[in-house]
Design brief:
Helices cover 31% and strands 21% of the residues. By secondary structure, the protein is an alpha/beta fold. Strands 6-7-8-12 form a 4-stranded antiparallel beta sheet, covered by helices on one side. α7 packs across α8. It is globular, with a radius of gyration of 23 Å. Bound molecules: zinc ion. Zinc ion is lined by residues 277, 279, 284, 340, 342, 344.
Length: 461
Amino acid sequence: MSKGIRRPHEVVDYDQLTQSYPPPPEYFDSTYLESRDEIERKQLSRLKDRALRAYQVPFFKRRWDAAGFDPNSITSLNDLSRVPFYTVDDIRKSIEANPPLGDYQGVLPKDAAKEPMRVFMSGGTTGTSRPTLYTAWDREAGAILTARALYQQGIRPGDTVLNAWAYSTHNGAFSMDEALYKWLNCVVLTTGTGTVTSSQRQIELAVQYGAKAILTTGDYLLRLAEKAREMGIDPKKDLQLTALPNIGDRASLEETFGGENYASYGFHEVQWIATECPARQGLHIQEDAFIVQVVDTDTGEPLPDGELGCLVVTELYKTGSPQFRYNIMDLSYLYPPEQCACGSWLRRMAPFSGRGDNMVKLRGVNVWPEALGEIVITHEQTTEDYFVRAIREGHRDEMIVAVTTTADAGDFATIATELETLLKEKIGVKIRVEVGVLGSLDELTEIKTSPKTKRFRDERS
Ligand SMILES: [Zn+2]
């Protein structure tokens, strides 16, 4: 330590880190094959530590005190269900009351000289992004978890990998970068998205450098394949991708590029949680770093294995901002705790199968229909009425917002353009707007026929 500054390499004990969270390939010969007893013993000890740390954070202390939960009272993994969960709404309220960081952070920027940290934001659509402060330990441990997942999906040390994620306020591109460079010894070729490096250039680079994977959405990877064909390049023979760690349409990806596509699951605040193994019987949860539960969408009560409900995630690996029983509102279910054909006893979850609310992921941005509604009704020529549809066009998800107005039909096009500009500004992605006369949405919203007005319909197959 010099002059009161502690650098990242001084705050992270790398021996302890790699013993606690073995990186790949060691992970697959050790932690991945542990017995249920070993897994759960480790989880309980980490859970107790994590509960005590979380209790020092105002957001958790307030909620736990109100619910009468004492973090010292955890004696078994079952006790976790006594802890009240929270949703994105609770986080939003915390930010509104304590801008800009909320009161759920485990570290604060004022301590950064002694505790190196960085801040990333989730894609918020209601004006407030949700920030998460990560310590150096959180970044490193998180990078190991990501490296394990990328390895399981076919990336190997020494591979050259194109990172085509957006380097932006969220951690997507950075977590890939950290995992590839620090823990997989891959040669990272940073391209950013198609707006930073053109699709044509991405293809040229992938061919020239013999890239083994292109990290981006499955949708964009398929667009790149179309581009390649236009350039006279065969996506399967000339590109030679050996890993497809892209979330998207599995059949199209495998057909287009050859090789195997494995499902995975994670989200901004905790990073990579689970990845499918070659047996393709569910996604193995990285249980040394997470406890995943499933609760009823309406009542919040824990559900038995096999029943579809909302995922509630507790991370066990961080030292910074905790996520302790976060109801992420993604729908899935748990497999019974059995040994998989691959040899692992790690619990498996089903792939993401929809939302407990109406969130749609549009080109990497989380969009809630209600948030779109709040924006479009602010236009002086629209009414309070709106209806949002999610559709699939080609390889892309799109959203269309329909609004009503008392203005003349001659003004509809202008209103639509103004709203599309406003939405692009506020949300960051293009969203189409349709304008109609009063009452034109009544059949969709059921405003006159049902006690609960409908505002959204998912028309993707
Ligand atoms: Zn398996």
